Fold ER membrane protein complex subunit 6.
Amino acid sequence: MLTERELQISPIVHESVVHNTKTLTTLHNLTASLFGVGAGILGLESYLGFLFYLAFSLLTSALVYVFRVLPGSAKDGAGTKRYFRGSMELWTGGLVEGLSGFVLTWTLFYGLVRA
């Protein structure tokens, strides 16, 4: 947790945190559709398709963490609390919202490839 002195030196702006959350959700929604295309073309069925989505969504979150959060946290040690409401929001923030887009494009491309 950040101390009062650290918050005075570099305050956390609520509007920026909300913007980061919206951006992360948009990223998850777009990549979920791309993952659906990949799962459909590969012909994945049932649990394998959902595991594909889960694995690549977590990979997307890990890439966001490595390329955006880690360089910022090296300066002040705040980590994900500085950019998001919590660390769980970074890892699972867009999983449920992107699931419908994933299933839609998964079934579309599965049907197009297998027809």
The CA atoms of residues 29 and 84 lie 18 Å apart. The radius of gyration is 17 Å. The mean pLDDT is 82. Residues 47-76 form the longest helix (30 residues).
